[in-house]
Amino acid sequence: MPVKLRLQRHGKKGKPFYWIVAADSRAKRDGKFLEKVGTYNPNTNPATIELNLDSAVKWLHNGAQPTETAKAILSYKGALLKHHLDGGVRKGALTQEQADAKLATWLEEKATKVDSKKEGLSKAQADAKAKALAAEKEANEKRIAATKEAEAAILAEETAEAEAAQEVVEAQDAPQAEENTEETEA
Predict the structure, then answer these.
(1) What residue ranges do the domains of the chain occupy?
(2) Strand, coil or helix: 5
């Protein structure tokens, strides 16, 4: 029975979530599997991968062939390196302690790379929020200034209209006042 290490899709439409499984290559993609080896969530940044390293290496030792995506995930988590180092131990090229030490140093380096990427992403996200807040404050200040200018313009127009109306009233009252003064003099 040819066994493959491959992804089995779960989750909902537009939000995939994968199980990494050992399955018969003739089985359906989301069908029967032999063992669940781990999970893969591509929706997070960086992608979240949980892998049972010993189980994955066991299947690799037994001849399971990973698909391209599964191979990339196994390589990312160090399963292929452990499989390779175990081959060296079997051949006598290195001891088990040396192989474990090499794997441990590689995993530590990988963890520091992932942590630095997470820190960089969180820093970039914080910078983006700060820029958005500054742009929003600037837009609010412009909006407030424009509102004050509009209110001042409306007040000036009302004052000008009131003065014009007052002048019109005074202009109408002035001829009548002259007539009244002429009548009183006569």
Answers:
(1) 3-94
(2) strand
Domain 3-94 has CATH 3.30.1320.10: yes
174: tokens are 């002035």
Q: How large is the greatest C-alpha to C-alpha distance in the chain, in angstroms?
A: 140
Of the candidates 142, 146, 73, the one whose C-alpha atom is nearest the C-alpha of residue 110 is 73
Residues 157, 116: Cα–Cα separation, whole Å? 61
Query: Is the previous residue joined to 175 through a cis bond, with omega within 30 degrees of 0?
Result: no
Tens digit of each residue's pLDDT (9 = 90 or more) over 125-143 = 899 999 999 999 999 999 9
Q: Reading across the β-sheet that carries 15-24, which strands appear in turn? A: 48-51, 35-41, 15-24, 3-12, 65-66
If you write DSSP's letter for every residue of 136-166 in order, what string do you get? HHHHHHHHHHHHHHHHHHHHHHHHHHHHHHH
